């Protein structure tokens, strides 16, 4: 305690004049100061009131439920035309003109290019002339054979003459057949000068311009036509993922639909979902030795042509389930130095730390493969302010945010190490873990 300095006193005077009056006033003032000082000292010695006891933290809880849960798998995929046809020149010659609009949809049988047909028309005319010559020779050979046969029967001609007549008739007939083949070849080559689309689809740009000399072997590629309906979507599954699925199926943690009849939906680049659903129609029986992936193909109806070849999309594969699985909100799971854990609420509304084994994410939830039982309650919101053994105040709805750090956890609690998941989840877990240190 502090003491006040004692003021010096004036010597007493035996005189009873005015000096006596001033001395009395001074004595009264000193007494008043002493009284005030004593009061202040007593007030300073009083004990400060004790701080109120910390209230139980407010939290929200959820009850653990075990049920069959449908799961989806997402893969990066790329669209591919179900029929990608090369439009090529089949004969050598000059390209007269292009008869289609580049990038437009062409119909089956529509003419796309026209080559110079005059040389091929002349070749056809020559082949027809040669055919007529052979047909005339055949007619003469048959007439000669008709005269020789009765004479040979009467022994008027030798056997050799008959054999020669028969041989000439057969040679002439064979020459007619060969000439007919030449005519057909010339007709085909003339037809190849008009190049048509074999299917309905989206055309590409022209690789050769009007007036170019094209050959069937060197520069015969003219353009492409892509069929848009149906459309293929290809995606790959890594070898590790494939082995993981097999292990989970063997352990009863995952179940595929019968006959692998999955439903596939597409998420486009802008986040919208394609209106048509697809089915898996092909899976490559061998892994790609360069990438270590397993190619899977789904087929989609594309009547409006919204999908184009080469688009990058996300393929969401649905149809699998996780039988008797447990899901907990991601924000309820905390990360310790060696494992994940949650706060379990007992019958006395007190918190108990429980180590769990987590699996895959499912939206905003997390699959828990070990550590929890159906019917148990776990803390969801407000876990930052929970310590082992602390009493909890369970409220409905999100718990109020706390501006101060949570009380230190008791000895033996998990230390903080952010989980190596997404950046946002890691930051959130780091914040939670800091409250349990």
TrEMBL record:
Biased composition regions of type Low complexity, renumbered to the chain: 397-421
Main location: other
Domain spans labelled Multidrug resistance protein MdtA-like barrel-sandwich hybrid: 83-217
A GO CC annotation given for this chain: plasma membrane
Multidrug resistance protein MdtA-like alpha-helical hairpin domain location: 124-193
Ranges of Polar residues composition bias in the record: 422-437
Compartments in which it is found: Cell envelope
This protein's name: Efflux RND transporter periplasmic adaptor subunit
Source organism: Paraburkholderia ginsengisoli
Lineage: Bacteria, Pseudomonadati, Pseudomonadota, Betaproteobacteria, Burkholderiales
């Amino acid at each position: 305690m502090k003491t006040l300095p004692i003021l010096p006193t004036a010597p007493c005077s035996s005189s009873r004049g005015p000096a006596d009056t001033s001395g009395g006033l001074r004595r009264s003032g000193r007494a008043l100061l002493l009284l005030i000082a004593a009061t202040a000292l007593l007030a300073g010695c009083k004990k400060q009131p004790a701080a109120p006891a910390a209230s139980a933290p407010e939290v929200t809880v959820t009850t653990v439920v075990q049920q069959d849960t449908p799961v989806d798998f997402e893969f990066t995929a790329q669209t591919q035309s179900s029929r990608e046809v090369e439009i090529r020149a089949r004969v050598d010659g000059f390209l007269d003109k292009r008869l289609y609009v580049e990038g437009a949809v062409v119909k089956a049988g529509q003419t796309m290019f026209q080559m110079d047909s005059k040389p091929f028309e002349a070749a056809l005319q020559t082949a027809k002339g040669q055919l007529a010559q052979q047909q005339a020779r055949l007619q003469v050979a048959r007439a000669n054979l008709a005269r020789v046969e009765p004479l040979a029967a009467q022994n008027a001609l030798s056997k050799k003459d008959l054999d020669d007549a028969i041989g000439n008739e057969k040679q002439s007939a064979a020459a007619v057949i060969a000439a007919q083949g030449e005519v057909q070849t010339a007709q085909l080559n003339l037809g190849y000068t008009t190049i048509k689309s074999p299917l309905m689809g989206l055309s590409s740009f022209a690789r050769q311009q009007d007036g170019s000399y094209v050959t069937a072997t060197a520069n015969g590629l003219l353009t492409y036509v892509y069929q848009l309906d149906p459309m293929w979507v290809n995606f790959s599954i890594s070898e590790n993922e494939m082995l993981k699925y097999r292990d989970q199926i063997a352990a009863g943690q995952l179940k595929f639909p019968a006959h692998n009849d999955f439903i596939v939906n597409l998420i486009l680049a802008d986040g919208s979902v394609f209106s048509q659903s697809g089915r898996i129609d092909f899976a490559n029986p061998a892994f790609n030795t360069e990438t270590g992936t397993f190619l899977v193909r789904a087929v989609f109806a594309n009547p409006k042509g919204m999908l184009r070849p080469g688009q990058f999309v996300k393929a969401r594969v649905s149809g699998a389930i996780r039988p008797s699985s447990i899901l907990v909100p991601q924000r309820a799971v905390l990360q310790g130095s060696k494992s994940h854990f949650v706060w379990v609420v007992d019958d006395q509304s007190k918190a108990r730390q429980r180590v769990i084994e987590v699996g895959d994410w499912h939206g905003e939830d997390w699959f828990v493969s070990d550590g929890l039982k159906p019917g148990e309650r776990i803390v969801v919101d407000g876990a930052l302010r929970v310590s082992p053994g602390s009493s909890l105040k369970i409220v409905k709805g999100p718990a109020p945010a706390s501006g101060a750090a949570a009380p230190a956890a008791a000895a033996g609690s998990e230390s903080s190490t952010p989980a190596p998941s997404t950046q946002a989840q890691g930051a959130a877990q780091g914040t939670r873990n800091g409250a349990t240190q």
